[in-house]
Structure formats: structure tokens, C-alpha cells
Amino acid sequence: MSQRPGRIHPFLVDRIFLSTLACAYVVYLMAFGHVLYLWMFAPSNPITEHQIDMTSNIAIQYWTVANMRNAIDDNQQNGDVSSLTRERGTVTGQGKASLQQGQPPSDESLSYPLSTVGKVFFTNAAGQNMSCSGTAVTSPNSSVVDTAGHCFYQHGDWMQNVLFCPQYDNGNTPYGCWAARDLEIPSDWLNAQHTI
Fold it and tell me: In angstroms, what CA-CA distances link 177 with 41, 68, 80, 114?
């Protein structure tokens, strides 16, 4: 008796085809998935950086104890945009400059995390001395302070004379103060319409 050649069952053909298609899809995802994800979902430039064009010593000398005490707390402002249109006042620069170098606290009772919280001082485009709260954060360069976006950029202008003093209290700076070298904000903040 002769045997007839066997036919491949249609169900088996479908399984082989689907298995091959699934393997090809997995290889495709492994090779190009991250590119596809970045193209579809990742923002092109999520952070905007602004280099400070003055030396740190200028900002440190600018922020005298008197200038710090008279700085307007920007976190407490009620969105008064008219204050930004006032003429620039003259800065006298009188008074003793704040501490120039960071140092261990003189008060041993200050401990983490309270020791990382402080004040960010800056001058806005209208020449007003302002302040915001800020905190030192863990970073690879050990030199990053986190604060609100409007403390670095507001109404189309970058802030000047930016300084951070951890544990600042009415002119007392137990850890010293550090001048900013560059400012970074989310690009979305730069391009948004602000009401602050």
C-alpha cells in the first residue's frame, strides 16, 4: 500500500506564522523600541539652563545683611505684576557682606533635614531684592538647590545675584551662603504664561 503524502494542517500553518510574527515583533521592539518611545513621548529639551555671567564674589558681596533683611519674600507676593514695572532703585551696597565660604554650623543642634532648608535671594528685572525658600538636594556635584521656577525666571527675565543660604534666620547664616553658577528651570515654565 502506498502512503499519500501528508498535508500540513491549516491550524499548524497559522501557529507557525503567528509565532514567527511574534518573534519578529519582539526583535523589532528590542532594537527600535527606545527610539520609538523617545520620538513619541519624550520632550525634546525638558530643561532650560542659564549661565550666570558674573563671578560668585559679586553676588556674595551684594547680599549684605541689610539687603537680605529687606528682600521681599516672593513666596508671599499676591501676583502684583505692577511691582515689576517700577524704576530700578539705586543699591547702596552699605553694610557688611554675608559669609563667603560654607562652613559647619556654629549651632550643633541643627540637624538634617532642617540644615538643608534655607533662603534663596535674588534680584528681579526691576531691581528689587527678593527671596524664596529653597533646599539643598542630593546631587552628583553636591551643589544643587531646589526652589520654585518663578524664583529663577519670571516675566521673561532671568533673576540676578542669586544666592542660597541654608538655615537663614534674620541675617544669621550658620552654614554660610553660596552664589549660583547657573540656573535651570523646566522648559515648560519658560514658555508658559505666568500669573505670578
Answer: 39, 12, 29, 16
Choose between 142 and 80: higher pLDDT: 142
Question: 144: part of which helix (H) or strand (E)?
Answer: strand 144-146
Contact 123, 179 (CB under 8 A): no
User: Strands 72-73, 129-137: parallel, antiparallel or unpaired by DSSP?
Assistant: parallel
Measured CA angle at 35 (ends 31, 36), to 5 deg: 100
What pLDDT was estimated at residue 121? 95
Chain center to CA of 1: 84
Q: Exposed e or buried b for every residue in 48-80, given b needs 16+ CB within 10 A?
A: bebebeeeeeebbebbbeebbeebeebeeeeee
Q: Any idea what DSSP says for residue 138?
A: -
Does the predicted TM-score (pTM) go above 0.85?
no
Q: How far apart are CA 179 and CA 52, in angstroms?
A: 10
Q: What residue type is assigned to position 156 of the chain?
A: G
Q: What does the block give as the cell for 101?
A: 565660604
User: At a CB cut-off of 8 Å and minimum separation 6, what does 106 contact?
Assistant: 174
Note whether 166 and 93 are within 8 A (CB).
no
pLDDT tens digit sequence for 123-147: 999 999 999 999 988 888 888 898 9
